[in-house]
Design brief:
alpha/beta; Isopropylmalate Dehydrogenase; ten-stranded mixed β-sheet; 14 helices; globular; disordered C terminus; binds 3-isopropylmalic acid; binds manganese (II) ion
Length: 378
């Protein structure tokens, strides 16, 4: 059965990552006759250059028709001065909204071999394996009204709105509980219920949903405390479920526990979940501008994202606790891989290129295949 995969490399580091991810996908495709049919299109700055908009309607239609979309990164200095409504990031927000990709899975995993890549003490972070489930199509990112008005005294005032409906909260809470159920059975819902009305409803609805998951231990935490706990004792968490903006911030914080956002994948799922895995980047232009991420190289994220597409059960199963991500997710093989990456990263020019990452993965493939366990490779 053929599966259509739409590749949207985006800008900056995106095409570089994607070229390697595609090699890995093609390798798996050939080896296991998976029937993947890859096609390419543009998003972000590349789409602005070609179509004048960051996501053309025909690209959106192709994404809708595809079984999965693999997306790189968007944005860059070239498009910095463009007005907000057609900035490269709008392409990302549009594809999320239009495809209903409300469930964003952002793991932060630190292999013991990389413990000293973190800025935190190794004992605090070694073996870290947490998952942030971020609501991706609601809240303040999309809330109306928003805009700028003139006050009576003549000064301008800008405003955004943070709305959450019960159904929006319920469906993301379910993703959180489902994930916790197949991992460590602990879910922490993060909100600001001591201040925000939307958070009060969030907490209430999460409590209701919890009744269907008696086997999962639910806790609640205010977002400011969660930010603190993530650097104090991150291993206390298993799955965190939170809203769009808190998830944006906390997932960056969590990624840095592992030393680099560049090594971590992300998936954005729609309500079908099955067959609709869409890998989304963990970083946008902002991160690169801020110097959090090297503009070229230093990333194996595309490789991991490609692996995510290959995971049977489409994405969610991939984030089971203890199930190591990446192509060839057997812990030992993965361990060798990351150790190799680490060496090339901290020796020499201090960087590991996507190509090097892909080569490492590809070189491990026969090892894993030899073990005769296809599921381990996929
Ligand atoms: C992310 C990014 C995006 C977001 C930007 C680029 C719009 O920061 O995926 O986390 O804020 O969601
Ligand atoms: Mn972000």
């Amino acid at each position: 059965m053929s599966k259509q995969i739409l590749i949207l490399p985006g800008d900056g580091i995106g095409p570089e990552i994607m070229a390697e991810a595609v090699k890995v996908l093609e390798l798996a495709n050939d080896k296991y006759s998976l029937g993947f049919e890859l096609s390419h299109d543009v998003i972000g700055g590349a789409a602005i250059d070609k179509h004048g908009v960051p996501l053309a309607d025909e690209t959106l239609d192709r994404a809708r028709a595809a079984d999965a979309v693999l997306l790189g990164a968007v944005g860059g200095p070239k498009w910095d001065k463009i007005e907000r409504d057609i900035r490269p990031e709008r392409g990302l927000l549009k594809i999320r909204a239009q495809l209903g990709l409300f469930g964003n899975l952002r793991p932060a995993i630190l292999y013991p071999q990389l413990a000293d890549a973190s800025s935190l003490k190794p004992e605090i972070v070694s073996g870290l394996d947490i998952l942030i489930v971020r609501e991706l199509t609601g809240g303040i990112y999309f809330g109306a009204p928003r805009g700028t008005r003139e006050l009576e005294n003549g000064e301008r005032q800008s405003y955004d709105t943070l709305p959450y409906s019960e159904s929006e909260i319920r469906r993301i809470a379910r993703v959180g509980f489902d994930m916790a159920r197949v991992r460590g059975k602990k879910l922490c819902s993060v909100d600001k219920a001591n201040v925000l009305a939307s958070s009060q409803l969030w907490r209430e609805v999460v409590e209701q949903v919890a009744k269907d998951y008696p086997d999962v231990e639910l806790s609640h935490m205010y977002v400011d405390n969660a930010a603190m706990q993530l650097v104090r004792a991150p291993k206390q968490f298993d799955v965190i479920v939170t809203d769009n903006m808190f998830g944006d911030i906390l997932s960056d914080e969590a990624s840095m526990l592992t030393g680099s956002i560049g090594m971590l994948p992300s998936a954005s799922l729609d309500a079908n979940n099955k067959g609709h895995v869409r890998a989304m980047p963990r970083f946008g232009a902002g991160h690169r501008r801020a110097g959090h991420c090297q503009p070229v190289g230093d990333d194996s994220v595309g490789v991991d994202d490609a692996a995510l597409q290959l995971q049977p059960g489409c994405g969610r199963g991939r984030y089971r606790k203890g199930r190591q991500p990446g192509v060839g997710p057997r812990a030992a093989h993965r361990g060798h891989l990351v150790a190799g990456l680490r060496e090339s990263r901290y020796a020499g020019n201090g960087r590991c290129s996507s190509r090097r990452a892909a080569e490492s993965v590809i070189s491990l493939a026969p090892l894993v295949a030899d073990a005769g366990k296809r599921a381990h490779f996929l």
